[in-house]
Design goal:
- The structure holds two protein chains of two kinds.
- By secondary structure, chain A is mainly β.
- Chain A is 0% helix and 54% strand.
- Chain A is built from no helices and twelve strands.
- Chain B contains no helices and eleven strands.
- In chain B, the strands form two sheets. In chain B, strands 2, 4, 5, 6, 9, 10 and 11 form a seven-stranded mixed beta sheet that branches. Chain B has a four-stranded antiparallel beta sheet with strand order 1-3-8-7, with no helix packed on it.
- The N and C termini of chain B lie far apart (36 Å).
- Classes of the chains: A mainly beta, B mainly beta.
- Chains A and B meet through strand 5, strand 6 and strand 11 of A and strand 5, strand 9 and strand 10 of B.
Chain lengths: 114, 113
Amino acid sequence: AQKVTQAQTEISVVEKEDVTLDCVYETRDTTYYLFWYKQPPSGELVFLIRRNSFDEQNEISGRYSWNFQKSTSSFNFTITASQVVDSAVYFCALSEATGNQFYFGTGTSLTVIP
Amino acid sequence: NAGVTQTPKFRVLKTGQSMTLLCAQDMNHEYMYWYRQDPGMGLRLIHYSVGEGTTAKGEVPDGYNVSRLKKQNFLLGLESAAPSQTSVYFCASSYWDLSYEQYFGPGTRLTVT
């Protein structure tokens, strides 16, 4: 079974639209960490955010916001007023404290159309 | 400050050949990682290192070996390449363990024919 599921394979939006990228995870650990990474067309992955399992506060950073809900095992990512530079593949990831493993989702390819 | 670098950027191998990918980081990070990225699969952890001289298996370790003789370097070896190992390989490092953010290299595109 997938540890991290990103059901949206590809999304296209028109510039300035808001878009939400979904991430659902599966773990039995009580201590775990969730991440989002961005992979622009250049190929190199860039860290966006890290959340531990004890901190369910939503986070906002500029046009980016994250909604962490343990009750639904989800860690969704919203881009407000999308821009062409947001076009990239976005990966959600899970780190489990026990077992010392790291799992990426399969990624969501976002295209922002000017 | 180069961050994480990978050598080479591209490589073509024939089935059965061997090769070593080199990863270097200049951030004095303890942990280093090797991933492979395949279409539709995301990134999968191959091996990682928790410090100089220590390595551990990831999700997909078979067919690969690693070594960390120096803190700043992490080598990924393929002893007998197979077409199934055609992939893009990424190296990463983090200040401490897997709960920390990882810094990625630019990737190595490997084709095995």
